[in-house]
Amino acid sequence: MESLYYIQQIEKSDPATMSVEKFMAQLDRALTQEPYVLVSTITAASEFLKQHPFPEVLNRIFNTLAKVFGDKTSIPETKVILFRIVQLTRESKKFIREYHTSDVMLRVIMMVSHNLDPEIRALCLMLLEGLASVVCDDSHAQHLIIEGLGAPTLIEKTAAIAAVKEFVEHSKQFCELVIQKFEDLLFSSEITSALKVNLINILPHFRDGVTLCDRIYALGKRLLAENLQKEVTIAAYDLLTHVAAKGIQVGNHADFLMDTIVEYKNEPIILQRLFKNLAKISASTHWEKKQIKRLLNLYPLCQQQKSSPAVIYYFLKALKEFTSESRYIEEIKGIDNYLIALLSHPNFSVCVGAARIVVNLQDYDTSSTTLLNFFPNVIERLSDAKPKEQRVFCKILADYCGNKTTTDEGVKFIACHLICSTTLNSASFETVLETLNSVCAQFPRIYPLAIKFAQTILDKQVEIIQSETDIDMDQGFLSTFKPHPHLFSLLLAPDFARDLTSLPLEDIVRDYGMKVDYPFRYDIAIAAFRYGHWRKVALPLLESLQLGKLQSTFALWIKCLINLAKSQPTSFTVKDLSLSQMQMKSAQLIAENLVNICDKGRFFKFSLAFIEIFNDIIYLLNSYLGMITVNQMILNSESVYAKRGVAAQCKLYSVRSAEALIKLDLLFQRSFDVDNESRAQLFLLRQFLDLIHFSFGFFFLSQPSRMPSPYFVETNSPTNAHLLELISWARSQFSKLYEIEKETWRIRITETNAFFVKDILFMLLSNSFYLPRSFFHFVYSTKIRLNIKSEGKETSDHGRYLVSGAASLHPIMVEGFVETNNPAGIKAVIIHGSIATLAKAGTEQFKPVHQRATELPDDANSFSLHFTFNVHHTSKIRFEVSFIDKATKKTWQSNTVEDIIIQIGGS
């Protein structure tokens, strides 16, 4: 029972908050427990190391496990412990480089590798595989793996091959050493074909080098000359293509493949693989026009392979790459009649491949009418196709609709056929919904058609459920009513895309929203926020949730959203805008509470910042509206005093709008992980604020500034595109003020001009109530973890160091680990160090002292920086992080903040 309790305690422990000492104590206790307790602890170590991927922690844990690996090999039933250690190294692959004392584990591996049990020896090889990035250059480890390749048992051979794959990716020295062994094995009659294929598949992973690539290419040619088994021959062709793609010999290799195609015209399997290899190198820029013509001349040969449609599929896949460049278009257009005919091919993959090329050629005078005539037949076959083929073809349809040569009627024609060919039970139902959403985003005029389709589907679902005899409405919803979320993305189309035939928003809430379960209502509410239906849709759905049954953080979040939904004004009057501002402020206070008190506060920082900025916009426009309403009678008078008062008010508002712009810039700096559409929305909000700031400046007593310059915003979101269009309209309207901007302030400050500006700004405001996706969640995740170490004795209070008062300069080392899935990547990390005399939390006045940067190599995600602080009194030292991304070279702010306390003597 004690052991079971201990395992439960491990499972309940939070790796993010557990200290290193506490975890090491757990590991030490587990060493004396039953084997399954130790396995559970090692399993918990995986998550713990993700939270603490620092050298000191890795060294302590893996050095302890090295002793376990050495001691447990004599007990057969504890092999599961050894395997769990192996798994831990694999799970720690991202940061195993920080294991700096790997020689401890390596000595144990070399000792255990002489065990008589082949499974134990295989586990040693697996452990080397997991530690490859830190032991790859050790000669003993290299020779142990090479010996494993020649081992008598299959389990050792397999483990050795897996280890080779990891080692060759890190060590060029090992590549040169093991290549000779590969040559011996590949031409050995004692090795099975399956193992030879495994070995050949590792060769592309060898580190690049001219001499090594030439040797591998020559090895591939020797394999082909030996007339080995068919699977080995196919693997050899794949190898040659991979090596050729790395260099400038693509043209020669393309000729070699096309020569071979003619030789193997009666071998469908090899022929298919040869065309697949041509497709792999078709993206290269080293092709010549004569080679393109030669490839096109192979089309009759592809047609003859009626039993192998994959041949023509890969032929089309190779051809697709060439349609991205105009220099090959004339040659490819020579077979456009064949391509159109392939739209009726019985194999759907071939049909899709042809459609992709024909749509790519659409920019080069291929008839859109011809495509429209053939697409309906393909759409009818959509539900019988594989899911991947459905998605690819629907992406082609979306691209076709978005092409500049496609008319509105053509888009409507495609949408109608998609709708008519799809039912609730169709296999292509989900894919068609995604496509309709994509097409509607590009052409909002299609929304009414899509709304009717979504309404029909939902009505049918409800009708089927209500026809059942055992309807359960006791919980307040139909328990079996689970519509697809994409249906509501269509139903909740923004107001500018709806027409008189569109289902009223209140009916959507009553007929569908209140019949789904509570989690689904929340999802619908999020969609409503994003499409601008805060009050009419999001509010009633959120108010219907039972907050008492929710976890406290989520309940608080729902209250924040409820207040936010109430902030959407019903009309643009001073009274309604004042109520809106009050509700927005309430939402802001709750969001601040979530950020400051909640354990997961960092997830709400973007939402809080966005609410603050939006609240500023409402405050500014409400204040401006109130001012011009109150002063309407005197704006046209000649009273200098009254006009000076208006100018003074506008100057105050201008200060507030400048502060809002600064807040927005700070939000930009923290938006590295947001999606492109959310970032585009921030850019549009910036332009809106720029126009507000410019408008106030127009009424200054001094000469007004010029209207801010526009900047390009690329977007695929219908709401962003609509707001961008309105901002362009607003700029054109504001340009009319240029005629009088150089006049005196007495002429500029008039009722006509004031209300002219008001009408423009409120048109923009009414079309700005769309929340970005990142308000609710980020698409990417970037975490930068810091480990702060100082000289002196660390007290029981984690992060507090007791040091002698003799030395005023105290060295501090900052270790860091970067983890991101953002494709932009991180090029450099900047650490900002500041110091403050210790005081009550939140009242310290930090003084910036240091700023140091370090560049991250392509294959590294960790760093270490040294600082020295002049400390005379017990002080708190704070480290904050910013970073530069690889793609745009912009500087971004991280949410990472770490503090330590330097306590002088016994104070």
Automatic annotation (TrEMBL):
This is Integrator complex subunit 7. GO terms for biological process: snRNA 3'-end processing. Gene3D superfamilies: Leucine-rich Repeat Variant. Residues 26-533 form the Integrator complex subunit 7 N-terminal domain. GO terms for cellular component: integrator complex. It comes from Panagrolaimus superbus. It holds the Pfam family INTS7_N. It comes from the Eukaryota. Belongs to the Integrator subunit 7 family. InterPro entries: ARM-like, ARM-type_fold, INTS7, INTS7_N.
